[in-house]
């Protein structure tokens, strides 16, 4: 049942998938686990009052999960021109200038993709807030595990943003990316911590 292809590729010396792809994968796992909580909730008389909202959350989680899986390849695609730029010749002034220009172009997608991964992870965390509060109590620990995974994915994706903005010549763009990254960490991290603390308290 377990598909190890991605894990084996991640463990290899190949540069992709790397940290960004792993972040997206972890976010997809978090989404799947939160969906399990929802699927264990629907159809139960005890939760009839929240049935409609659970169904809506399941649809949102599915969309987020599919997007995160796409972003595994998206991260690899963004890394390719970045790696190519770093590998360009710099033995003449003209070559060095061309290398710097190519690098600056590649750095944009190398920041945009992990930021999108972070946004998707925040959406997963938001769904976990609902699932932990209103989902089946039998799956409460799963809701907690999902939010922990989602926060880990959020933070790990942020590291790709951090390393790439450090090489940006456009300091205004770099600051904008940093601000977005920090806002996402603040929003998602606080929510995730609150959900985890609440789950731990209820589990005793």
TrEMBL record:
GO MF assignments: catalytic activity
InterPro entries, alphabetized: Cyclodeamin/CycHdrlase, Formintransfe-cycloase-like_sf
Occurrences of domain Cyclodeaminase/cyclohydrolase (ranges): 5-182
Protein name as it appears in the record: Sugar ABC transporter substrate-binding protein
């Amino acid at each position: 049942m377990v598909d190890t292809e991605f894990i084996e590729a991640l463990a290899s010396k190949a540069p992709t998938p790397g940290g960004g792809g792993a972040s997206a994968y972890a976010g997809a796992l978090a989404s799947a686990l939160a969906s399990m909580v929802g699927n264990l909730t629907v159809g139960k008389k005890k939760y009839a009052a929240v049935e409609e909202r659970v169904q809506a959350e399941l649809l949102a989680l599915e969309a987020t999960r599919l997007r995160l899986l796409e972003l595994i390849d998206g991260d690899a695609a963004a890394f390719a021109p970045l790696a190519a730029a770093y590998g360009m010749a710099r033995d003449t002034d003209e070559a060095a200038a061309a290398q710097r220009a190519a690098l600056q172009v590649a750095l944009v997608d190398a920041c945009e993709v992990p930021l999108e991964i972070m946004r998707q992870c925040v959406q997963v965390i938001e769904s976990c807030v609902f699932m932990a509060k209103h989902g089946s109590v039998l799956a409460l620990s799963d809701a907690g595990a999902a939010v922990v995974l989602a926060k880990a994915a959020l933070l790990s994706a942020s590291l790709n943003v951090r390393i790439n903005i450090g090489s940006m010549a456009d300091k205004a763009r770099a600051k904008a990316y940093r601000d977005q990254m920090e806002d996402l960490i603040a929003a998602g991290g606080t929510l995730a911590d609150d959900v985890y603390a609440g789950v731990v308290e209820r589990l005793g």
